[in-house]
Amino acid sequence: MRLEDEIHQKFFKTSQQKLAVNLIYTTNWVHNHYLVHFKNTELTMQQYNVMRILRGQHPTPCSLKVIKERMLDRMSDASRIVDKLVAKNFVIRNQCPNDRRSVNLLISEKGLAVLKEIDVIDDATVEMFKNLNPEETNQLNDLLDKLRG
Fold first, then answer.
1. Are 28 and 82 in the same domain?
2. Which CATH number does the domain housing residue 88 bear?
3. H helix and E strand count, the chain
4. Any residues with CB less than 8 A from the CB of 64 and at least 6 apart, and which?
């Protein structure tokens, strides 16, 4: 559906303004599609993001710095998110043997099991983008990468 119809706006000052509004609107649309999958879990989207980062590193431990660099939402408080995941026994925190000021983070077996249950999100993501063929999906990815420079 056209953005103009969705937000009941007849025109935009420039195509760049429409693009900015379209990106914000679409980001929220995608976000809301994801939120449905977190309603019956103990996780937030930010916690899910941290756990996926740790699963990608598994079985190698990871530092908080690495998590911060890889997070999708750079405004999130990674330390607080990790604290909550440790409290839920989804993440194991150990002091780094080489640097006492640093900690090593590792996803626990319980955390891996929770992620495995939520992996249906990947199938839902494919369904969410069903209106785009593979070529269009790749083109949109390329354009978004180009936009960010």
1. no
2. 1.10.10.10
3. 8, 2
4. 78, 79, 82, 102, 103, 105
Residue 144 lies in a domain: no
Q: Is 67 in contact with 78 (CB distance < 8 Å)?
A: yes
SS3 130: coil
Q: What is the pLDDT of residues 85-132, one digit of tens each?
A: 999 999 999 987 777 677 899 999 999 999 998 988 888 899 999 999
CB hemisphere CA count around 46 (13 angstroms): 14
How big is the chain by its Cα radius of gyration, in Å?
A: 19
Q: Which of 68, 56, 58 is nearest to 102 (CA)?
A: 68
**Has residue 140 been placed in a domain?**
no
pLDDT digits (tens, 9 = 90+) for 11-64: 999 999 999 999 999 999 999 998 888 888 889 999 999 999 999 999 999 999
Residues 65 and 112 in one domain: yes
Half-sphere exposure of 39 (CA within 13 A, CB side): 7
| pTM score, whole prediction | 0.86
